[in-house]
Design a protein that fits this description.
One of its GO terms (cellular component) is endoplasmic reticulum membrane. The protein has 448 residues and is mainly α. The chain is built from 16 helices and three strands. Strand 1 and strand 2 form a beta hairpin.
Length: 448
C-alpha cells in the first residue's frame, strides 16, 4: 500500500532490526551512561564559528611572500577542516573511549591516507620524488639500508657480545609491537601462527629484500621465542586480566574526592568493557575458515608493505615517514580487527564496518603503489616462492585452526562441568558471575 507521499510502506521485521542493531554496534557504537553532558553535546554552531574565525585569521594576518609556506599552511588547514567534518559526519566505529570524536578523527585520517595513496598512484616516479623532497628535502640524500649494510654474515659465530648487540630499539619494538598485536587479536593460536608465518614470509621474500636475511639463531631464538613470544605472553596476560574484571563505571559527579575524580578521569582512557574473543570453534563454517585465512594474508601484506615502501621510496626506518605510518596503521588496526571479527563471527552482521573497508583498501593500495614504482625490483620475483608462500600460509593456518578446534572441544567439556558455578544476569545475556564454591574462584565476571 502506497503512502500519501508516494513512498512504499514496509513493516520492519525482526531480522532487519537485529541486522541494524548489530551493524550499529560495530560501526556506530553509542556512549552509555553519559555523566558529563557538555562533552557529548554536538556544539555544531560553536564549532562552525570557531573554524570560520580561525580561517579568517590565517587568511588575512599571515605573510604570503613565502610560496612554500603558503602551500604548507593551505595543506594543513585543508586537512584540519576535513578532520572537523570527520568529527561532525563520520561514524564512531566500535569504540567510544576516551571519546567518540577521537575515533572519528582516526577514521578521517585513514580516509585522507587512502585518498593520498589514490593520488600517488596516478603520478610518475619523478613527481613522487618531488613530493617526497618537498615534504623533507633531506630525503634527497637518503640511501637504502640494504646498500650499506650486510645481513646474515658469519652466522656460525655465536657469542654473548653478538647476541646482546641485537637487543636494541628494534628488538624492543618487536616485543612491544607483539604485545599490542596480542591485545588486538586476543588469541594465542592466531598470534603464534602470524608470528611463525611472518618469519617464513621473510624467507620467501628474501630474494627481493636483502634485509630479510637473518641468522638462524636470530630468527628462531631472538625473534620468535624471545621478542615475539614475550610480547604475545605479555599482551595475552593483560587480555586475561581485563576479561576477568567486572566493569561498573561510576559517574564522576558521584565521586567527591579530588583523588577519586583524577583516577576516574584517567580510567576514561581504558576500555569501557572487554569482549571475549573466540575466532574459531568446532561448529565454524568454511566461510569462517576462509575469513581467518584472508585475515592472515592481509596482515602479512600490511607488514610487507612496511618494508617494501621504505626500500622502494628510499627512506630509513628511523625516518618520520616510517614510524608515523607504523603508528598510524597500529591505531586504525584496533577498530578494523574488532569490525572484522564481528563480521566473521556474528551471523547478524552482514557487512564489514567502514573502518575495516578503508583499512583493506589502504593495504591493497600500498601494495599497488609498491608494484607500480618498484617494477624493476618486482621483475626479479620468483613466482614459485610466492606460490609456496601462499601454500605455506594456508597449511599453517589450517593446522592452527585444527589446534584451536581441538582446544575448544576440550575447553567446552571442562566449561560444561563448571556451569553449575555460573549465575547469569536475567537482564543481560552477556554478563555472568561466578558463584563461590569451596576450592573455586570466589568471584569472577566475564564480558562476552
Amino acid at each position: 500500500m502506497a503512502s500519501g507521499y508516494g513512498y512504499e510502506s514496509r513493516t520492519i521485521g525482526k531480522d532487519d532490526v537485529n541486522y541494524r542493531m548489530h551493524f550499529r554496534m560495530i560501526n556506530e557504537q553509542q556512549v552509555e551512561d553519559i555523566t558529563l553532558d557538555f562533552f557529548y553535546k554536538p556544539h555544531t554552531i560553536t564549532l562552525l564559528t570557531c573554524t570560520v574565525l580561525s580561517l579568517m585569521y590565517f587568511a588575512f594576518t599571515r605573510d604570503e611572500t613565502n610560496e612554500d609556506a603558503n602551500l604548507w599552511v593551505g595543506l594543513i588547514l585543508v586537512l584540519s577542516f576535513f578532520l572537523v567534518i570527520s568529527v561532525l559526519a563520520f561514524p564512531n566505529g566500535p569504540f567510544t573511549r576516551p571519546h567518540p570524536a577521537i575515533w572519528r578523527i582516526v577514521f578521517g585520517l585513514s580516509v585522507l591516507y587512502f585518498l593520498f595513496l589514490v593520488f600517488i598512484i596516478f603520478l610518475n616516479w619523478e613527481q613522487v620524488k618531488n613530493v617526497m623532497y618537498w615534504l623533507d628535502p633531506n630525503l634527497r640524500y637518503a640511501t637504502r639500508e640494504a646498500d650499506i649494510m650486510e645481513y646474515a654474515v658469519n652466522c656460525h659465530v655465536i657469542t654473548w657480545e653478538r647476541i646482546l648487540s641485537h637487543f636494541d630499539i628494534f628488538a624492543f619494538s618487536h616485543f612491544w609491537g607483539w604485545g599490542m598485536k596480542a591485545l588486538l587479536i586476543r588469541s594465542y593460536g592466531l598470534c603464534w601462527t602470524i608470528s611463525i608465518t611472518w618469519e617464513l614470509t621473510e624467507l620467501f621474500f628474501m630474494h627481493l629484500l636483502p634485509n630479510f636475511a637473518e641468522c638462524w639463531w636470530d630468527q628462531l631464538i631472538l625473534d620468535i621465542l624471545l621478542c615475539n613470544g614475550g610480547g604475545i605472553w605479555m599482551g595475552m596476560t593483560v587480555c586475561r586480566f581485563l576479561e576477568m574484571r567486572t566493569y561498573h563505571w561510576a559517574s564522576i559527579k558521584d565521586i567527591h574526592t579530588t583523588t577519586g575524580k583524577i583516577k576516574r578521569a584517567a580510567l576514561q582512557f581504558t576500555p569501557a568493557s572487554w569482549t571475549y574473543v573466540r575466532w574459531f570453534d568446532p561448529k565454524s563454517s568454511l566461510q569462517r575458515v576462509t575469513g581467518v585465512y584472508l585475515f592472515m594474508i592481509i596482515w602479512q601484506l600490511t607488514e610487507l608493505n612496511t618494508f617494501f615502501l621504505k626500500h622502494i621510496f628510499v627512506f630509513p626506518a628511523c625516518h618520520a615517514l616510517s614510524w608515523c605510518r607504523i603508528l598510524f596503521i597500529g591505531i586504525i588496526t584496533a577498530p578494523t580487527v574488532r569490525q572484522y571479527y564481528a563480521y566473521l563471527t556474528d551471523t547478524q552482521c552482514k557487512r564489514v564496518g567502514t573502518q575495516c573497508w578503508v583499512f583493506g583498501a589502504i593495504a591493497f593500495l600500498e601494495a599497488l603503489a609498491c608494484i607500480k614504482f618498484g617494477m624493476e625490483l618486482f621483475s626479479k620475483t620468483q613466482v614459485l616462492y610466492v606460490l609456496l608462500w601462499l601454500v605455506c600460509v594456508a597449511l599453517i593456518t589450517f593446522l592452527c585452526l585444527y589446534g584451536m578446534v581441538w582446544y575448544a572441544e576440550i575447553y567446552d567439556m571442562n566449561y560444561t562441568s563448571l556451569t553449575t558455578g555460573w549465575s547469569c544476569c536475567n537482564h543481560s545475556p552477556y554478563t555472568c558471575t561466578f558463584i563461590h564454591h569451596p576450592g573455586r574462584l570466589e568471584h569472577m565476571s566475564l564480558e562476552l
